[in-house]
Each structure stands twice: as structure tokens, then as C-alpha cells.
Amino acid sequence: MRMSSLSSSQGSRSSTKSRGRRRTCFCGERQVLRTSSTAENPGRRFWGCINYQIGDGCDYFGWAESEGQDPQIQILKNKASSLKQELQKVERKFALALAVGILGWTMAGLLLYDRLN
After folding, report:
1. Higher pLDDT, 41 or 19
2. Considering the chain, what is the average pLDDT of its residues?
3. Is-contact 26 58, C-beta < 8 A?
4. By the 8 A CB rule, do 52 and 61 touch?
5. What is the pTM of this model?
């Protein structure tokens, strides 16, 4: 089913203000933020059922408001930023652990070499 037919057939049911936007779709599953890849709406964001266009799955969909107006998008951006910061912390800890491990093995190798000679 094409998005243009979806927007006309289900637009009235799914285009609500962000405060009143449904948290689940018609089949009761959660919505996910997707990006349109159609010629009519390239790059436009929309909310769709997690089962959107999968087999006989639910075809719930509703256009997302502009990023400045949709609080859910801001929440997702904040979460992504927080996850990026957490990833950077973990990467630094991993690099430190790797350096300590390499240093430890190098020292152990040198001590073993010294005792053998």
C-alpha cells in the first residue's frame, strides 16, 4: 500500500496533536519513528506500527510533526545524545583497560625473558 493512499485513508484517524498522539497503533503494538522513501515524500518522518508493511501486518501510520514541535522527537534526540556520551565513556574505559593489559603482558614477558636468561 502506498503512503499517499494511507495518508488519505487513515490520515484523519492518525493525525492528532502530539499531546494526543496514540502511543500504540490499531493492533496494539508500539509505534516507531520512520523515514519515508517515496518519491512524493522523500525524507519525511512518520510514525508507524512496528509491523508496518510487514506481510499482513498493521498499516497504522501518521506524519510526525516538525522536529521543533514534536516532543517525542526531542526525547529521542536526547536519548541518542545520552547514548553517544555513554558510548564514549565506555570506549575510553576500554582503551584504558587495553593499554593496561598490553602493558601488563609486556612486563610479564620481560620478567619471564629476564629469568630465563
Report:
1. 41
2. 76
3. yes
4. yes
5. 0.39
